[in-house]
Design goal:
Helix content is about 0%, strand content about 50%. The protein has strands at about 1-5, 10-15, 20-25, 35-40, 45-50, 55-60, 65-70, 75-80, 90-100, 110-115.
Amino acid sequence: QVQFVESGGGLVQAGGSLRLSCAASGSTFSINTMGWYRQAPGKERELVATISRDGSTNYADSVKGRFSISRDNAKNTVYLQMNNLKPEDTAVYYCNARTPLRPYFPWGSGTQVTVSS
């Protein structure tokens, strides 16, 4: 089992920046890909960005060029640098991980990001 603790959210004005962190614990040795997800009020959870163990990244079209995902394998931590934030980025942000045997683990509490216009 793997557990996640997300942090770094907050209230920011449009155009501002935030850096999210997510620390994974438990059976982290099996983790391959880590990812950030978000869920806005009344909407389904969506994938924001992923990063594989070798550093390969993928982003949702809505955040390309503004968000950057990175990871520290030694610390089992994944980061999300968010620049030029927009009101539509307002959501609870979660991280999760994928292993060869499991597509995801139980979700953590997430961290709230609120962007004011």
